[in-house]
Amino acid sequence: MPSKQKSLLSRSSRGSRHEARRPVWAEVSLGALAHNLAAIQKYVNPPEEKRKSPRKILSIVKGNGYGHGGPQVAKALENAGSDWFGVTCTDEGIAVREAGVRRPILVLTGFVAGEQARLLKYDLTPAVHRCDQLPLLERAAARRGSKPASFHLKVDSGMNRLGIASSDVDCFARQLGKCKHLKLTGIFSHFASSEVFTDTTAGKQTQEQEERFYAALDRLRALGIDPGIVHLANSAAIVSRPETWANMVRPGALLYGYHPGYDPAEKREEAEKLLPLKPVMSLRTKIIHLRRVPAGAGVGYDATFVPKRPSLIGVLAAGYGDGIHRSLGNRGSVLLRGKLAPIVGIISMDVTMIDVTDIEGVEVGDVATIYGTDASGNVILANRVARSIGTVTSDLLCAVSQRVERVYVR
Ligand SMILES: Cc1ncc(COP(=O)(O)O)c(C=O)c1O
Prior knowledge:
Elements: H1 3-14, E1 24-29, H2 30-43, E2 56-60, H3 62-66, H4 70-80, E3 84-87, H5 90-98, E4 105-107, H6 116-121, E5 125-128, H7 133-144, E6 149-156, E7 164-165, H8 169-177, E8 182-188, H9 201-222, E9 229-231, H10 235-240, E10 248-249, H11 267-274, E11 281-293, E12 311-316, E13 333-336, E14 339-344, E15 352-355, E16 367-373, E17 379-380, H12 382-388, H13 393-398, E18 405-409
Parallel strand pairs: 1-18, 2-3, 2-10, 3-4, 4-5, 5-6, 6-7, 6-8, 8-9
Antiparallel strand pairs: 1-11, 11-12, 11-16, 12-15, 13-14, 13-16, 14-15, 16-17
Helix pairs in contact: 2-4, 4-5
The structure holds pyridoxal-5'-phosphate.
């Protein structure tokens, strides 16, 4: 464990961490993270399958580890047994390597021309999603000169974003034949709508994607190319589509304690029963001011909240500049003294107002939990909050900004 992480752990366990600075912090439970990884590992390795070697886990730690701190969560996940890591770009991969992670790191969005040497220097595994990337990588690998550089091939199976088309497999194979310094060690694709189970275009898409992907894989094998590790499944597919597990799965949201929003919505409850998870991040702040506001007076920008009764308004030391989604203004709530206190008015960049009229004993310095678990075990689930404002959990988690200190606790 890096020394910075260790010192955060000990400071937070003494409970003295927040006294002398702006009180906004994201508590990251490494215990919950390890629990979620172990639960996923167990779930995708049912004993009745009697696999010779366990199905692997590639932990998605891109986007600064969905806001939890990419290098720190990657290191903790490596200690807990994750096999692979997924980042989006070279810089994210280097940060994870520099945190001491030794296991393979897949750069999911590949590289831009000119980055190849750095990528190989840090032993990162790029995703190749266009055939014309092969000669670039080959030249860098030849210059490096040691063992062949490993890469994964990304296939576009129907999302129409990144990846080679199934029809380009022959061309890819021909190009690869000329690359003596490269080794294909994996093949993958990404699902566009694995959480959708309705009779719609999106609902039918996952099966179509699987069919296209396996056609590309079969063609590659027919051309005599060993594809290496095969992987497809993101969170919803991991829980609800076992036929997509192949020999490695790529959880993101699940690792951080959340099931994605399903369509139909009830399917999430089913998923939660199949794979119980623990939310990893608790985003917290404190009340820095209490104000009595008479009935009829406007609160915050544009006076969008006008109380009908004399009210007690708490001002929280965190706003959208910290990652509290602005659309929660007049819609969301925070946990305070075990109760839900409604967010009132427009959320400002640095502060948020809550109505605490009905909460007994409120004081300046009280801790508010925006999402996650409070000290008594009450929970505000980020996926419920996300759904209420029409977004996804990872949008809320990734939005937790740089000025919010991450405090790693067991
Ligand atoms: C290629 C790839 N695999 C897996 C994931 C993880 O997705 P989820 O958070 O739904 O598990 C992502 C996230 O966007 C991704 O881009």
